[in-house]
Design goal:
Blueprint (H helix, E strand, L loop, with lengths): L57 H15 L6 H18 L2 E4 L3 E7 L2 E6 L3 E4 L6 E7 L4 E5 L1 E6 L2 E6 L1 H4 E3 L5 E12 L2 H6 L4 H18 L3 H6 L2 H19 L3 E13 L4 H70 L1 H17 L4 E3 L14 H9 L10 E3 L2
Parallel strand pairs: 12-13
Antiparallel strand pairs: 1-4, 2-3, 2-5, 6-10, 7-8, 9-10, 10-11
Helix pairs in contact: 5-7, 8-9
Length: 402
C-alpha cells in the first residue's frame, strides 16, 4: 500500500484535512480530527482514548452521497446535468406563471399575442399560456367608478376639499348666461372586452363624452331652471345622451347616475342674474295682483251685465207695450174720425193747439171789442223770454184772434 508520500496520491484513506500524524499505531485509518502521536492511540472528538469506537469518516459519507446521485443519474453528475436541471426548474416556473384567479364580480380578459382570445366571467382559478404567448387582465365589473367634471378633489390644511377647473365647469345657457357647474358621473364596466379594445383611453373618453353631453343640455336650458329648478331633469337628459354616445362607440361602459353637485352663477353675470331674478319676482307679483283684480272685477262685471240685460228686457217690453198702446189709440181715433169727421177734426185741432200753445206767452185779443183800442204789447218782457226760449219751445209771442 503506498505511503503518505506516494506521488500519485492514491491513498483512499487519506483524510481531507491532510493530517499526517506520525504515531506508531500502525496502518489503521486516521480520523479527521487528527490522531495523537505515538502508540497508535488517537483522540476522538469526545476526548476518548484509542481502543474505543471510531466515528465514520466524512470522506466515506461523501462517497456514499455521490454513489446515490450516480444511481439517480446513470450518466454521471457533470456540468451538463446542472444545466438540464436548471432548464427544467425554469420551465416549471414559467409554466406556473400562467395561473390567475378571478374573484366574484371580476372578469378576466385573455389575449394571445396581443389579440383578444377569450373572457372568463366565472369566479375561480384559471390558466393561460405563460407570457409572452398569452396575457390576462382582470377587471372588476361591478364596482361603481366615478368621473368628476368641473373640479378635482384636493387636500388642504383644513382637510379634504376640491379645486375648481373653469375650463370644464363654465357652460353657456340658452339665455346667454354663464353657469358654473360641478357634476359627478357614476359608471361601471358592462363589457370587459369592448372596454379594453374598442376605444384607446376609456376613462378620458368617458370624461369628454360627459362634458360634451352636459354642455349640450345646458345650452338648451335657461339659467333659472338650472340654478333653482329641477336639476334631476337636466341630469337625466345628460345621462341619456352620454349613454347613447358610449353605446355608439361600443365602449363597454354603463352610466349608472349623473349627479349635479353644484350649480352657481358666474360672478361676471351675477348682477344681470340678480336683475333677472328681481324681474321674475316682479312678474310673479304683478301676476298675483292681476289675478286678485280679475277675481274681483269679473263677478262685478257679470252682475252688471246681468243688470243691463234685465233693464234692456224691461225697456223692450215697455217700448213694445207703448207702441202697441199708441197704435191702439191711433186706431181708436181713426174709428172715431170715420164716425164723425167734423167733430173729430175739431177735437184734433184743439188738441194740437193745446200742445203748441201750452208753453208759449200768449196775448188774446177779442176781435169784436178791439175796435178803437190801440194794442199794447209789453215788448220789454217778451224779448228776454224769447231770448231764453229753447229751440223746442213755442214762439215767444202768439197772437190769437178769435
Amino acid at each position: 500500500m503506498p505511503g503518505p508520500n506516494d506521488p500519485n496520491n492514491n491513498n483512499p484513506n487519506k483524510n481531507p484535512w491532510g493530517n499526517r500524524g506520525g504515531g506508531s499505531g500502525g496502518g489503521g485509518p486516521r480520523n479527521p480530527w487528527g490522531g495523537g502521536q505515538g502508540g497508535g492511540s488517537g483522540r476522538g472528538p469526545g476526548g476518548g482514548m484509542g481502543g474505543g469506537e471510531i466515528p465514520p469518516d466524512l470522506e466515506e459519507l461523501l462517497k456514499k452521497a455521490q454513489a446515490n446521485l450516480r444511481q439517480a443519474l446513470p450518466g454521471g453528475f457533470g456540468p451538463t446535468k446542472f444545466i438540464v436541471l436548471g432548464l427544467l426548474a425554469g420551465a416549471a416556473l414559467w409554466l406556473s406563471s400562467g395561473f390567475y384567479y378571478v374573484t366574484p364580480g371580476e372578469n378576466a380578459v385573455i389575449t394571445r399575442f396581443g389579440a383578444w382570445n377569450r373572457t372568463q366571467t366565472e369566479p375561480g382559478l384559471g390558466y393561460r399560456l405563460p407570457y409572452p404567448v398569452e396575457e390576462s387582465t382582470v377587471l372588476n365589473v361591478t364596482v361603481d367608478r366615478r368621473v368628476q367634471i368641473g373640479f378635482v378633489d384636493a387636500m388642504g390644511r383644513e382637510g379634504t376639499g376640491k379645486r375648481d377647473i373653469p375650463e370644464e365647469s363654465l357652460m353657456l345657457t340658452a339665455d346667454a348666461n354663464i353657469v358654473d357647474l360641478d357634476l359627478v358621473v357614476l359608471w361601471n364596466i358592462e363589457n370587459a372586452e369592448n372596454y379594453l379594445f374598442k376605444i384607446k383611453d376609456p376613462d378620458a373618453t368617458l370624461k369628454k363624452v360627459a362634458e360634451s353631453a352636459m354642455r349640450e343640455v345646458v345650452g338648451q336650458t335657461n339659467l333659472q331652471p338650472i340654478i333653482t329648478g329641477n336639476r334631476n331633469e337636466v341630469a337625466t337628459r345628460a345621462q341619456k345622451i352620454m349613454q347613447d354616445t358610449l353605446n355608439a362607440y361600443e365602449s363597454g361602459i354603463s352610466i349608472k347616475q349623473v349627479v349635479i353637485q353644484e350649480a352657481t352663477v358666474h360672478p361676471d353675470v351675477l348682477d344681470a342674474f340678480e336683475d333677472v331674478v328681481a324681474a321674475i319676482q316682479d312678474a310673479e307679483r304683478f301676476q298675483n295682483e292681476a289675478n286678485i283684480y280679475r277675481n274681483d272685477i269679473i263677478p262685478k262685471a257679470r252682475g252688471e251685465a246681468q243688470r243691463m240685460l234685465q233693464e234692456a228686457e224691461g225697456y223692450r217690453q215697455s217700448t213694445i207695450a207703448r207702441a202697441e198702446g199708441d197704435a191702439e189709440r191711433f186706431n181708436s181715433v181713426y174709428r172715431a174720425y170715420l164716425e164723425g169727421k167734423d167733430v173729430t177734426r175739431e177735437r184734433m185741432y184743439i188738441e194740437a193747439m193745446e200742445s203748441v200753445l201750452k208753453n208759449a206767452q200768449k196775448i188774446i185779443m177779442d176781435k169784436d171789442g178791439s175796435d178803437g183800442v190801440v194794442p199794447y204789447l209789453p215788448l220789454n218782457r217778451i224779448a228776454p223770454a224769447a231770448g231764453n226760449a229753447t229751440p223746442d219751445a213755442a214762439p215767444a209771442k202768439t197772437t190769437v184772434t178769435p
